[in-house]
C-alpha cells in the first residue's frame, strides 16, 4: 500500500459524474440548533470508489445521503478509517478559498497508508472539494467572512470480515455549517498517567478515527468538571503533546529573558502535524523572529519536548506571556489556564491578560483565508456550476 501500483487507475478529479439533488436541504441560520449540531450537511457530497483490482473509479457528486456498507466492512471491525478537517472560506472579495489544501491532501494520503488504505495523488483532494463547493457554495456560503467545515474521509468498506488489507475503499467528502468557536481563554485539564493518547511507534501523527474514540471518555469527564479540553501528557516526565484535537503553543521567556514560541516536536510522532500549526510556525519565523511588530518583541520559534513541570515552573517565576491552541476546528484560541493534578496554572501572563501575539497570529491567518492578503496558501475555487 506504500505506493500507487502502475496497473491500477489513479485518483483523477478532472472528470466527474454529477447527479444534482432535486430536494434541497434547509440552510441553517447562524447559532441555530442545526448549526450547533455539527451534522447538518449541504445538499451534495463527493464519493470515489477504489478496488484492489481496478484502482480509483470516476468521482461522483451526488445528493447527500446515508452510506450503505455491509456489516462485515473492514472499517467497522478493524478501524480502517481516516479523515481530514478543512474549511472553505467566502472571501471579502466574493471568492471561495481553501487554505493550503495540498497539506491536507498529503496528510490524508499518509493517514490512509498508516491505516492500510489506498494512497492517492494528494493534489487531487482540493479538486474534489472544489467541485463540491462549485455546486453547493453559492447557496450555502453566500456571505463574505464566513466558512463551511469540510470533512474528507476514507473507509475500508468491502464485505471482507477476515483480517486483511481492505480490498475496497470509499473516499467521500461532505461539507457542514460550523459554529465559530471563540473563547477568551480555554481551560485545560492535564491528563493523568493512566490515560495515554499516543505513543512512539504508534499513529498519533495520522488523523485516524482510532486516535479519537479512546480519548472521548476522558474528554467528557473533563467537560463535566468545567474544562474545555484535555491537555494530553506522555511519559514519566509528563511531556505536553496536544490539547484535545489541537496543537498546543506557549509563549514565555527563557532563562536569559528572551521570548520563545514553544511547541511539541514532530520527530517522535506523538502529535498530529497540524496544517495550522505549520502555518503558525512559518509565519512567526518569517514575520516576527527578527523584528518587532508594533509593541510586540521578536519571538524565537522552538520545537522541542516540553513538560508540564516546565510550564508550572515558568508560571511560578512569572515568565509565561500567553498560550494558545491551533487547529481547523478551534482555529487560534487562547488558553487561560491548565489544571495539573491539584494545581491551577495560569497561562495568561503576569498581568492576567494576553500580550497580543495570539491575536496578531490569528489576524495574519484570517487575512490569507478570507483574501484580504493575496498569498500562495489561499487556493481560489473558480466559479463553476450554479
UniProtKB/TrEMBL annotation:
Signal peptide range: none
Group of enzyme by EC: transferase
EC number: 2.6.1.42
Keywords on record: Amino-acid biosynthesis, Aminotransferase, Branched-chain amino acid biosynthesis, Pyridoxal phosphate, Transferase
GO molecular-function terms, A-Z: branched-chain-amino-acid transaminase activity
InterPro entries xref list: Aminotrans_IV (IPR001544), Aminotrans_IV_CS (IPR018300), Aminotransferase-like (IPR036038), B_amino_transII (IPR005786), BCAT-like_C (IPR043132), BCAT-like_N (IPR043131), BCAT_family (IPR033939)
Catalytic activity: L-valine + 2-oxoglutarate = 3-methyl-2-oxobutanoate + L-glutamate; L-isoleucine + 2-oxoglutarate = (S)-3-methyl-2-oxopentanoate + L-glutamate; L-leucine + 2-oxoglutarate = 4-methyl-2-oxopentanoate + L-glutamate
GO biological process: L-leucine biosynthetic process; L-valine biosynthetic process
GO cellular-component term (any): mitochondrion
Protein name, UniProt field: Branched-chain-amino-acid aminotransferase
Organism per entry: Penicillium malachiteum
Amino acid at each position: 500500500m506504500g505506493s500507487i501500483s502502475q496497473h491500477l487507475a489513479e485518483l483523477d478529479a478532472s472528470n466527474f459524474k454529477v447527479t444534482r439533488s432535486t430536494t434541497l436541504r434547509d440552510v441553517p441560520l447562524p447559532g441555530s440548533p442545526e448549526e450547533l449540531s455539527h451534522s447538518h450537511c449541504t445538499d451534495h457530497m463527493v464519493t470515489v470508489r477504489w478496488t484492489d483490482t481496478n484502482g480509483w473509479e470516476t468521482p461522483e457528486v451526488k445528493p447527500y445521503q446515508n452510506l450503505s456498507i455491509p456489516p462485515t466492512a473492514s472499517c467497522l471491525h478493524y478501524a480502517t478509517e481516516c479523515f481530514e478537517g478543512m474549511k472553505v472560506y467566502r472571501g471579502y472579495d466574493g471568492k471561495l478559498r481553501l487554505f493550503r489544501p495540498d497539506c491536507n491532501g498529503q496528510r490524508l494520503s499518509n493517514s490512509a497508508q498508516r491505516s492500510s488504505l489506498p494512497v492517492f495523488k494528494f493534489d487531487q483532494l482540493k479538486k474534489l472539494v472544489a467541485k463540491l463547493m462549485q455546486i453547493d457554495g453559492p447557496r450555502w456560503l453566500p456571505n463574505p467572512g464566513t466558512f463551511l467545515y469540510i470533512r474528507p474521509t476514507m473507509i475500508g468498506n468491502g464485505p471482507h470480515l477476515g483480517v486483511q488489507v481492505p480490498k475496497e475503499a470509499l473516499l467521500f467528502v461532505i461539507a457542514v455549517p460550523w459554529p465559530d468557536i471563540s473563547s477568551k481563554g480555554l481551560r485545560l485539564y492535564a491528563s493523568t498517567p493512566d490515560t495515554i493518547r499516543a505513543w512512539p511507534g504508534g499513529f498519533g501523527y495520522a488523523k485516524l478515527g482510532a486516535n479519537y474514540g479512546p480519548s472521548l471518555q476522558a474528554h467528557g469527564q473533563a467537560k463535566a468538571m468545567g474544562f474545555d479540553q484535555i491537555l494530553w501528557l506522555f511519559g514519566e516526565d509528563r511531556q505536553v503533546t496536544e490539547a484535545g484535537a489541537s496543537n498546543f503553543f506557549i509563549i514565555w521567556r527563557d532563562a536569559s529573558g528572551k521570548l520563545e514560541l514553544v511547541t511539541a516536536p514532530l520527530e517522535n510522532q506523538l502529535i498530529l502535524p497540524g496544517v495550522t500549526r505549520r502555518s503558525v510556525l512559518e509565519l512567526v519565523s518569517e514575520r516576527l523572529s527578527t523584528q518587532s511588530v508594533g509593541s510586540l518583541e521578536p519571538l524565537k520559534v522552538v520545537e522541542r519536548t516540553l513538560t508540564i513541570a516546565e510550564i508550572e515552573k515558568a508560571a511560578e517565576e512569572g515568565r509565561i506571556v500567553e498560550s494558545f491552541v491551533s487547529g481547523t476546528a478551534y482555529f487560534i484560541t487562547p488558553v487561560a489556564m491548565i489544571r495539573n493534578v491539584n494545581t491551577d496554572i495560569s497561562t495568561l501572563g503576569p498581568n492576567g491578560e494576553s500580550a497580543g501575539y495570539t491575536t496578531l497570529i490569528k489576524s495574519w491567518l484570517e487575512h490569507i483565508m478570507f483574501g484580504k492578503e493575496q498569498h500562495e496558501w489561499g487556493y481560489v475555487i473558480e466559479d463553476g456550476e450554479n
